[in-house]
Automatic annotation (TrEMBL):
Gene this protein is translated from: LOC118310283
GO cellular component, as recorded: late endosome membrane
Pfam families: Cation_ATPase, E1-E2_ATPase
NCBIfam families cross-referenced by the UniProt entry: ATPase_P-type, P-ATPase-V
Protein name in the entry: P-type ATPase A domain-containing protein
Key word Amino-acid biosynthesis present: no
TM region positions: 122-142, 162-181, 653-671
Membrane topology: Multi-pass membrane protein
Keywords, sorted A to Z: ATP-binding, Endosome, Magnesium, Membrane, Metal-binding, Nucleotide-binding, Phosphoprotein, Translocase, Transmembrane, Transmembrane helix
UniProt similarity note: Belongs to the cation transport ATPase (P-type) (TC 3.A.3) family. Type V subfamily.
Locations listed in the record: Late endosome membrane
Coiled coil regions in record: none
Gene Ontology MF annotations: ATP binding; ATP hydrolysis activity; ATPase-coupled monoatomic cation transmembrane transporter activity; metal ion binding; P-type transmembrane transporter activity; polyamine transmembrane transporter activity
Major localization listed first in the record, in broad terms: membrane
Length: 685
């Protein structure tokens, strides 16, 4: 129990898994964890122990940098892996509300208040009515004293003026429209945990969308591969399952071996589990993955690796009497890091004395870690060709390690020593299809003069291509990429601008926009920027960021905290912002926006005021429509109640001035109340 734990305690993780009661750093063994409670990602992730030797071990523990070694509170540990006689251990780092889960719960319990003009004006108007009631109160007392009215009657009549002028039923009456709207939203599969936000949806004039899983399909399909040999690409691309026997992609090639080994897949109850991209890549090879059992590990002193092999394939050069199976063991894995944008593995093929390293990641990052003569000269042009068409591109690289490296020595090597002087193998091209409903919904929002933005963690050119395909950027409109460089070596930070069509040619933005000879069509443009440029501009050019976001449409390679920061900047320039995401990396932005809509029904969706049971963006127009209906109902009720109070206040004051019998006032009140409720009923229905 978390009540019995303090930071510094060492806990043992049971083999059959558990729900983590605290944040803990894994110091021994490996765990497979489902973190959907925090991230919204249903794909299990592998957590490895903290480095015990090498350069990485000298670093002090940091939760942001060592997320791959940290078990977070509330996450479900599915299974553990350990060596015989050794337990999986972790050190408690944080407990209670200091944990990641505790901070999420705290942000839900005490959200940052959102300012809404209708409610602010309603409070100001009520203060004005209190002032008017005060005047009537004093006037009634003076008039009654002059007419020699008994003291008891003076007190009752004076207090009546206050209750008449300041309508006590105003909050309940304004809630009527929200209640009806919430019922209608529930019928179309949109659930709300913050009903007051429904009125805010009626004022939305900008909606931010995540890309993967929101505008596009969640899964990826392997479209093809582009192999590289001797510093140039092969003549054409092909799919691995089209020509399995061809010379280009033979089973024992380094490219196929990289596809089969460079991943973080694992077997849970006999089923392959892991990142959808890794699953598609591995299944395209047709290979088989086998993991060692506890009994097999007990028979050997060395670490038993995960083995991959093609079905029914033996090494052609092997002795015919004793054929050697073609198997590759994954000796060490360096998990994917979103900061480094890459992952790598160290493998050994059965029968070989040396080991190999395979690297997979963002093409620009992989190319920078390869020997320059192995990277094709047309690398940039080929990459842009695919990304402009909306494909997601991943690069593969390979390196043969020294034969003197032993299994145990590899376990202590840092990834920087492995991921260098690689040989470029080629590109893996994945296709991410746009959802059927996306283009129609975005067209509907544009016709309603509601601005739309894309905020994604994907590649810049891929994001721009998807924005064009779904209609966020129209065919005649140009996209200007804003690229910023941080200060370095006595050089100040700088911003460069270029069109997507000519990335090598810089443009002078001031001359381009102010040229009077340009037609209106040529002046239609959108800005696009990466997360790196966004951070530099925010830090070093804060006076420009608000101007940029007024015309920016695509934000690529954005980290989760940058998404939240963008929402806050848009709110600071008087936008009423909606955010629609799948809950994976959008929790902060979903909470911060005026209206956050989660398309995920996992636990992370509790951070969002609205959750849709349909996994596409068709829920956004429905929400805005109901928001506007609730807003106009609240506004009409507010006006009616205000006029009703003022008219009744003036009438009663007039009756008091002529000292009319109290029963006349009673009749007037009953008639007004009856009309009032019938009017509210008519508006709500």
């Amino acid at each position: 129990m978390s009540t019995e734990l303090v930071p510094g305690d060492v806990i043992i993780i049971p083999a059959n898994g558990m729900i983590m009661p605290c944040d803990a750093a894994l110091i021994h063994g490996t765990c497979i964890v489902n973190e959907s409670m925090l991230t919204g990602e249903s794909v299990p992730v592998t957590k490895t122990s903290l480095p015990s030797s090498g350069e990485d071990a000298a670093e002090s523990y940091n939760m942001e940098e060592h997320k791959r070694h940290t078990l977070f509170c509330g996450t479900h540990i599915i299974q553990t892996r350990f060596y015989t006689g050794e337990l999986v251990k972790a050190v408690v780092v944080r407990t209670g509300f200091s944990t990641e889960k505790g901070q999420l719960v705290r942000s839900i319990l005490y959200p940052k208040p959102t300012d809404f003009k209708l409610y602010r004006d309603a409070y100001l108007f009520l203060l004005c009515l209190v002032g008017v009631a005060g005047i009537g109160f004093i006037y009634t007392i003076i008039l009654s004293v002059m007419n020699q009215v008994p003291a008891k009657t003076i007190i009752i009549e004076s207090l009546d003026i206050i209750t008449i002028t300041v309508p006590p039923a105003l909050p309940a009456a304004m809630t009527a429209g929200i209640v009806y709207a919430q019922r209608r939203l529930k019928r179309v599969g949109i659930f709300c945990i913050s009903p007051q936000r429904i009125n805010m949806c009626g004022q939305l004039n900008l909606v931010c969308f995540d890309k993967t899983g929101t505008l596009t399909e969640d899964g990826l399909d392997l479209w093809g591969i582009q192999r590289a040999e001797d510093g140039r690409y092969s003549r054409s691309h092909c799919k691995p399952n089209e020509n399995q026997t061809s010379e280009e992609i033979r089973v024992d090639s380094a490219f196929v071996a990289g596809m089969a080994t460079c991943h973080s897949l694992t077997k849970i109850e006999g089923e392959l589990s892991g990142d959808p991209l890794d699953l598609k890549m591995f299944s395209a090879t047709g290979w088989i993955l086998e993991e060692p059992t506890e009994e097999e590990t007990a028979l050997h002193n060395p670490i038993m690796p995960t083995v991959v092999r093609p079905p029914n394939y033996v090494v052609p050069e092997a002795n015919q009497n004793n054929p050697l199976p073609f198997e590759i063991g994954i000796v060490r894995q360096f998990p994917f890091s979103s900061v480094l944008q890459r992952m790598s593995v160290v493998v050994r093929r059965l029968g070989e004395k040396h080991m190999n390293a395979y690297l997979k990641g963002a093409p620009e990052i992989v190319a920078s870690l390869c020997k320059q003569h192995t990277v094709p000269q047309s690398f940039t042009e080929t990459l842009e060709t695919y990304t402009r068409q909306g494909f997601r591109v991943i690069a593969l690289a390979h390196r043969q390690l020294e034969s003197k490296l032993s299994w145990h020595k590899v376990q202590s090597l840092s990834r920087d020593l492995i991921e260098t002087n690689m040989e470029f193998l080629g590109l893996i091209i994945m296709q991410n299809k746009i959802k059927q409903e996306t283009a129609g919904v975005l067209r509907e929002l544009r016709q309603a003069n509601i601005r739309t933005l894309m905020v994604t963690g994907d590649n810049m050119l891929t994001a721009i291509s998807v924005a064009r395909d779904c209609g966020m950027v129209r065919a005649h409109e140009r996209v200007i990429i804003a690229d910023a460089v941080p200060p370095k070596d006595f050089q100040s930070a700088s911003i460069t601008w270029h069109y997507t069509e000519n990335p090598s040619v810089e443009i002078n933005l001031e001359e381009g926009v102010s040229d009077k000879r340009q037609t209106l069509q040529e002046q239609s443009y959108h800005f696009a920027m990466s997360g790196k440029a966004f951070a530099v501009i925010t830090d070093h050019f804060p006076h420009l960021i608000q101007k940029l976001v007024l015309r920016a449409t695509v934000f690529a390679r954005m980290a989760p905290d940058q998404k939240t920061q963008l929402v806050e900047i848009l709110q600071s320039i008087d936008y009423t912002v909606g955010m629609c995401g799948d809950g994976a990396n959008d929790c902060g932005a979903l909470k911060r926006a005026h209206s956050g809509i989660s398309l995920s029904e996992l636990e992370a969706s509790v951070a969002s005021p609205f959750t849709s049971s349909t996994s596409n963006i068709s829920c956004v127009p429905n929400l805005i429509r109901e928001g506007r209906a609730a807003l106009i109902t609240s506004f009409c009720v507010f006006k009616f109640m205000a006029l009703y109070s003022i008219i009744q206040y003036l009438s009663v004051t007039l009756l008091y001035s002529v000292n009319t019998m109290p029963f006349l006032f009673l009749i007037l009140t009953l008639c007004s109340t009856r009309y009032h409720f019938s009017h509210i009923e008519g508006i709500s229905v």
